[in-house]
Design brief:
Layout (H helix, E strand, L loop, with lengths): L5 H19 L3 H19 L4 H23 L3 E2 L2 E2 H32 L15 H16 L8 H9 L1 H4 L7 H8 L9 H37 L6 H32 L17 H7 L2 H12 L9 H19 L3 H27 L2 H6 L1 H23 L3 H11 L11 H5 L4 H17 L3 H12 L3 H23 L13
Antiparallel strand pairs: 1-2
């Protein structure tokens, strides 16, 4: 069930909201249980065969979390190690084991067979959302081991993991972000300002996905698909496709995140913002502080820092950066393209930190930070690096990515004539360039959804008339966008559903 469909907007969401607030008037536990059940149904609507896997994962992790918490209050040792640490290791191994099998088994076997083996395990189907709910629960176990988790209510934990706005494409949540909200009685009472502001933010995300991301997507698909099939595009087509995908990905994923935040506001629940104008970044470090913030934070706190972070000298710091980004790339998908994408960003970060260390030594940092010209050049280099790396992210094969980069370099022959692939797809390159210029300007210059959302929420809190008028307008726009989406030949899923 997609957020962009009439089934979700006109049927699922109203039923869940009405049940949530009616039960919330009587019992907070019943309301939380209702939302837990509705979220489980939402997941089962997508992939009913994997609902038991999700619930089993929740049951195992909740039990292990309890064991870790109890072992901390009654310290014991086994095999020379604290029992709590052993439970934590078991929990991490369980989650990574599930992820390894369902996400990487095909990749592992295919690579072995390419080396001459003859293994056949069938084709393992990837359950939607397993990357997100696995990381969410690993964070829960580690936080419990650190003594940061105090509440172990089964209904709240189940809701924390399955909560439908974030379940299949994030953000990656922390236990401490959600449990205080689930324990707050006000969350289960209808709030007009929160509801109307949530509708407005949902509409912004819906517009990003249905109009912007889906509008520019054909210009990426028309070039990347033939490139994966063996065709070398012209230089102009390759650049247009790379830019189109760069913007499609941003407006698709940030649109999903906005919709998730808006849906949560309707339930009086606040999810963390996941984007902060990443295409306005002036360095790769700045980019990763702004892009997919919840994943960046997870990788920093649960991988980079435990590896040693920057505490063991420059060489170890660069090695930790490289390892973190390679594993972050592999988290996105089981292919060498994702590994190379992560490795590229790891290399970018190493160069970024080395350059920063050099300017610090030379005393140039303060002057460069004040320079407008340097900011423009830094932004341009950052975006060039990001666009080039996105080619590996989008291509379905390593060979296809290399063909795209070869064409973008200007060194590839243009034997079939520039513009032919777009022409074959019935697309106009000038229109595609216009899309890229418009969306690029919006991403680089306009305020982000986080700032807009807070202003919208403050506005809806001011007066009842404002809430009614604004909320009605937002609902009308939402209906129109859903109708527009439904009128297409096919409804596109969100890109991050594949991860």
């Amino acid at each position: 069930m997609l957020f962009t469909t009439a089934t979700f907007v006109a049927l699922y969401l109203p039923i869940v909201l009405i049940g949530y607030y009616l039960l919330g008037c009587r019992s907070e536990t019943w309301a939380a249980a209702w939302l837990f059940a509705a979220s489980t149904f939402f997941y089962g609507y997508w992939m009913p065969e994997f609902t038991l896997l999700l619930l089993g994962s929740i049951g195992v992790n909740f039990t292990l979390g309890q064991r870790i918490g109890q072992s901390r209050t009654r310290p014991r040792r086994l095999f020379g190690r604290p029992v709590a640490s052993l439970w934590l290791i078991a929990g991490i191994a369980f989650n990574l084991g599930l992820l390894a099998y369902f996400k990487y088994a095909n990749f592992f076997v295919d690579n072995l067979n390419a080396l001459g083996f003859d293994w056949d395990i069938g084709r393992v189907i990837l359950p939607i959302g397993i990357s997100f709910y696995s990381f969410t629960q690993i964070a829960f176990l580690v936080d419990t081991w650190h003594g940061k988790v105090r509440e172990f209510r089964p209904v709240h934990y189940g809701l924390f993991v399955t909560y439908f706005p974030h379940l299949v494409a994030g953000p990656v949540l922390h236990h401490a972000q959600m449990m205080p909200q689930f324990g707050n009685p006000a969350v289960y009472r209808f709030n007009g300002a929160h509801f109307m502001a949530g509708v407005a933010i949902f509409v912004i995300g819906l517009f990003k996905k249905v109009v912007l991301a889906d509008g520019v997507a054909p210009y990426a698909d028309a070039i990347f698909v033939p490139a994966d099939g063996g065709v070398v595009p012209s230089s102009g087509e390759a650049w247009l496709a790379a830019l189109a995908y760069t913007l499609q990905l941003y407006f698709d994923f940030s649109g999903y995140s906005d919709m998730a935040i808006g849906l949560s506001w309707m339930f009086n629940i606040r999810l963390p913002f996941n984007f902060n104008s990443p295409y306005q970044a002036t360095s790769i470090s700045d980019f990763w502080r702004r892009w997919h913030i919840s994943l960046s934070t997870f990788l920093r706190d649960y991988l980079y820092v435990p590896l040693g972070g920057n505490r063991r000298g420059p060489a170890r710091r660069y090695a930790n950066l490289a390892a973190t980004m390679v594993l972050g790339g592999l988290w996105h998908g089981a292919s060498w393209s994702f590994v190379l994408w992560g490795a590229l960003h790891g290399a970018y970060l190493m160069v970024n930190h080395a350059f920063r260390a050099m300017t610090d030594r030379l005393g140039w940092t303060a002057g460069l930070d004040r320079s407008r010209a340097f900011a423009v050049v830094a932004w341009g280099l950052t975006m060039l690096s990001v666009v080039g790396a996105w080619v590996f992210f989008r291509a379905q094969s390593l060979e296809g990515a290399l063909r795209m980069l070869w064409a973008m370099s200007g060194l590839a022959p243009e034997g079939e004539g520039p513009g032919l692939l777009l022409w074959n797809a019935g697309l106009d390159g000038a229109v595609g360039a216009g899309w890229c210029l418009l969306l690029g300007a919006a991403a680089a210059l306009l305020p982000n959804s986080n700032a807009i959302g807070e202003r919208v929420l403050a506005w809806f809190r001011t007066a009842r008339d404002a809430r009614v008028a604004g909320g009605t307008a937002a609902l009308v726009v939402a209906v129109l966008l859903v109708v527009l989406n439904g009128a297409r030949d096919s409804v596109s899923a969100f890109i991050y559903f594949n991860f």
